[in-house]
Design brief:
- The protein is an alpha+beta fold.
- The chain has two domains: about 200 residues, no CATH class; about 120 residues, endopeptidase fold (from Nostoc punctiforme) (Alpha-Beta Complex).
- It contains twelve helices and seven strands.
- The strands form two sheets. Strands 6-5-4-3-7 form a five-stranded antiparallel beta sheet. Strands 1-2 form a two-stranded antiparallel sheet.
């Protein structure tokens, strides 16, 4: 197979990431190509999101340095080297920014993860120095401050100086990338950046569900969804009682369904399963099910047993839904909380992050 063709396949794989619709569309093309190349590429198809064990190794290689293994396709070896070179440029600029910083330093893993999600697999990654500087500046705010300065004659005057303040809110960072750097990251790229950040910094996969969102305080993934005047949920009180029976049970995505472990979508799935209603297995897919089966309701029509969906951050899933809970009436909700580490009964929270309400029938 020609190198140019192999490179085209690699870039298509990276762009597709975990998008099932894209892969459905290109499956027939891949099937017609040389099997050894397909096998080599398939090992790295979600490398931009740090998904598989192979991809974790590639992410760490780009972040931590070292030579690519012989088994890695030549195109990917080139992309990793390009990332390493670009990260060196960013490190030099971040060194200068750190010298101006008061308080917490800029998270270099985050800066590089966003860069990785935007440029891994691109034909030309190496930017001009000014472009790297403009990119890095999107992760800090520059503030002018004053301080006392003693002069040679002993007098004290006020002098101005500039400090860099690290930005913690990821939503603001992506807004600055669009306004100041001129690159608008898609939700998929934002999701990939978070995935790469978790792999590079913590060597673990990013959680796809949960109500922890402190660094996405400005995020609002709401969209326009039609709502329906559905009949009352006759099973609502039973659903709430079932949910309350799990209060205090521990939260775990990895262990959900074993022992007493639950996560947010398993709690809702389990409750409705007890009354003979089957729901999909993730919060996002439960939300999709509500929309596709005309089971959405308005917030002001919520009744006990209805489902409430939140979008706390981009995760690349349907409507970027990250959390689901069961409305318990009187402004309360029962949900398996990532941030609390267990199933809780609490006031209905984060109005600005609620994106969907459903009434399973």
């Amino acid at each position: 197979m020609e190198p140019a063709t192999a490179a085209l396949i690699a870039r298509a794989a990276i762009a597709a990431g975990t998008n099932k619709k894209v892969w459905t569309g290109i499956a027939s093309v891949l099937a017609a190509l040389c099997l050894p190349v397909i096998l080599a590429v398939m090992c790295y198809i979600s490398i931009a999101s740090g998904g598989t064990e192979h991809n974790r190794a590639a992410v760490h290689l780009a972040f931590d340095g070292g030579e690519a293994p012989d088994g890695m396709p030549a195109d990917y070896q080139a992309y990793v080297r390009q990332m390493q070179e670009s990260f060196a440029e960013l490190d030099a600029i971040l060194d200068d920014i750190d010298g101006m910083t008061e308080g917490e330093l800029c998270d270099r893993y985050l800066v590089k993860s966003v860069f990785y999600s935007l440029y891994f697999g691109a034909d030309r990654v190496r930017l001009e120095t000014d472009d790297y500087k403009k990119f890095a500046d999107c992760f800090v705010d520059y503030e002018e401050r004053t301080q006392n300065a003693e002069q040679e004659d002993g007098t004290v005057t006020l002098e101005k100086y500039t400090v860099a303040v690290a930005i913690g809110d990821k939503t603001k960072i992506f807004q600055k990338l669009a306004s100041d750097y001129g690159v608008t990251a898609t939700y998929e790229q934002q999701s990939n950046a978070v995935n790469v950040w978790y792999v590079a910094k913590y060597d673990t996969a990013a959680p796809t569900e949960g109500d922890e969102f402190s660094d996405w305080s400005g995020w609002n993934g709401a969209g326009d969804i039609p709502v329906y005047d559905l009949p009352a949920n006759g099973n609502g009180s039973d659903i709430v009682q079932l949910a309350l029976s799990r209060l205090g049970h521990p939260y775990s995505q990895a262990l959900r369904g074993t022992g007493n472990y639950v996560d947010c979508s398993y709690l809702t799935l389990w409750c409705y399963r007890q009354i003979g209603i089957s729901l999909p297995g993730t919060a996002a897919e439960q939300g999709r099910y509500m929309v596709e089966h005309n089971l959405t309701v308005a917030k002001e029509s919520l009744q006990p047993g209805d489902l409430v969906f939140w979008s706390h951050k981009p995760n690349g899933r349907y409507m970027n839904i990250t959390h689901v809970g069961i409305y318990a009436g009187d402004g309360m909700v029962v949900d398996a909380s990532y941030s609390k580490g267990k199933v809780v009964y609490r006031p209905l929270f984060d109005n600005d992050k609620q994106v969907l309400y459903g009434r399973p029938q």
